[in-house]
Specification:
The protein is an alpha+beta fold and 211 residues long. The protein has two domains: 91 residues, Beta Barrel (Ribosomal Protein L25, Chain P), CATH 2.40.240.10; 78 residues, Ribosomal protein L25, C-terminal domain (RNA Polymerase Alpha Subunit, Chain A, domain 2). It contains five helices and 13 strands. The protein is elongated, with a radius of gyration of 25 Å.
C-alpha cells in the first residue's frame, strides 16, 4: 500500500470556537487514536486531496511538529452544504499489530454475462479488511470474467493473501443482472437494429429528394 505524507501542527486550544477559526483559515481539525495518547492536530485542507479524492487506500505518514507516526483514515466528516472537509479521525498503526481498514474494490475482466447483454450491479464499493500494514493492498481486485447473468459474488466467495475480510460472508459485493437487451432474442435485436438504421437514413433521403 502506498504512503502519503501529511504535515500538521498540534492544537493548543480545543473546542468549537477554536475549530471554527481553524476552518475559516482552510485548516481541518484532526484526531489520532490508537497510540499511547490521543493527539489533536490540524492541517491544511489541500493535504487531503491525494488521500480522500482517490480510488485507492493509503497509509498516512503523519508528521506533527517533530512527532512522526503511521496511521490510516478512520472517519471523515464533510460540511452538509459546501461538502468541504470539516473533521478527520485517524488510527495510529504499528508494523507488528494488525489494522482494520476499508479497502476499495476494483473490478477486472470481461464478464460473460455482460457480453450476453447483462448489466453489472455493484453493491459494495469497498470492503472492511484486517491485516498488517505492510500487507494491505491499495485495492481489492475482483475478477468477473466467469460471472454469468443472474450470478453474483459475495464476500464469502473472495479471499486475498495475508488479509481477512470482516464484512458478513453472505453480503453481496456485485452481481450481473438481466437487462432488457439480454431478454430479447437475436431476431428481435436484429429487427430493432434494422428499424433504427432505416429511421436514421430517412431524413437524409428526404433531403436528397427535395434537392
Amino acid at each position: 500500500m502506498k504512503t502519503i505524507e501529511i504535515n500538521g501542527s498540534f492544537r493548543k486550544v480545543l473546542g468549537k470556537k477554536s475549530s471554527k477559526e481553524l476552518r475559516k483559515a482552510n485548516n481541518v481539525p484532526c484526531v489520532i487514536y490508537g497510540g499511547k495518547e490521543i493527539l489533536h492536530f490540524y492541517t491544511h485542507e489541500n493535504n487531503f486531496k491525494n488521500l480522500v479524492y482517490t480510488a485507492d487506500a493509503h497509509l498516512v505518514n503523519l508528521k506533527i511538529e517533530g512527532k512522526e507516526c503511521n496511521a490510516v483514515l478512520k472517519e471523515i466528516q464533510f460540511h452538509p452544504v459546501s461538502d468541504k472537509i470539516i473533521h478527520v479521525d485517524f488510527i495510529e498503526v504499528a508494523t507488528d499489530k494488525p489494522v482494520t481498514i476499508g479497502i476499495p474494490i476494483r473490478v477486472i475482466g470481461d464478464s460473460v454475462g455482460i457480453k450476453a447483454g447483462g448489466k453489472l450491479r455493484i453493491r459494495r464499493r469497498s470492503l472492511l479488511a484486517r491485516g498488517f500494514a505492510n500487507d494491505l493492498p491499495e485495492f481489492l481486485p475482483i475478477d468477473i470474467t466467469e460471472v454469468k447473468i443472474h450470478q453474483s459474488i459475495k464476500v464469502g466467495d473472495l479471499s486475498f493473501d495475508k488479509i481477512e475480510l470482516l464484512d458478513p460472508k453472505k453480503s453481496m459485493v456485485l452481481a450481473v443482472a438481466t437487462s432488457r437487451v439480454a431478454q430479447k432474442t437475436p431476431e428481435e435485436l436484429e429487427a430493432e437494429t434494422a428499424a433504427a438504421e432505416l429511421a436514421a437514413a430517412a431524413p437524409v433521403e428526404a433531403a436528397t429528394e427535395e434537392k
